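Section 3.1 - Work completed
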Amino acid sequence: QVQLQESGPNLVEPSQTLSLTCTVSGAAITTNYYSWNWIRQSPEKGLEWIGHIKNVGTTYYSPSLKSRTSISRDTSRNQFTLQLSSVTPEDTAVYYCARGPGGGRYDYWGQGTQVTVSS
């Protein structure tokens, strides 16, 4: 059974960098064909794809967030990490990590973590 778990601070101050880690069990993040995604959800914007890192380490980001986003991985710990810089209250959302088997689908999700941007 594949499981994903997000971790990181729930409160971030404006202009700071949001950093979240997704720990994966039951599957290696280097497994062929899969992408490892960050997605967020807010009442204002609904579900929004942030970006992903593929099994070979290649990264892709949403054009609207690309200038502020970095996704990296630690294969020894089977983790991948999101960093979103210069956050504003508009970045307040529930952040999810998810596995993508391709075709715009996601077959396993973390439970999500609420991140609030506020001073």
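Second construct:
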Amino acid sequence: QVQLVESGGGLVQAGASLRLSCVASGRDFSNYAVAWFRQAPGKDREFVLGISRGNIGTYHARFSISRDNAKKTVYLQMNSLKPEDTAIYYCSASPDGGVKTQMWGYDYWGQGTQVTVSS
């Protein structure tokens, strides 16, 4: 069993940067794949970035993902933020260690952190 807690969200202006953190509790966190999803008002939840148990991250033009297994933490670094990045950002974890882009691929979810980007 893994519990996830996100933090680092807030209100920023367009062009700013934010770093979100996802802290996990539970055993064997290093074996999990972790992904960030986001959900904007009125829209479906969508995949942002993921990182595998082997520390292989997916690509995004403005964002990056990293993990510190000793701290049981995954980070989402977001640069050059745009108003369309406004959403609740969720951290998720999968025990099979591989990154999936669909929500059904993840067994554990955090409560989310709000990111609001003003123009």
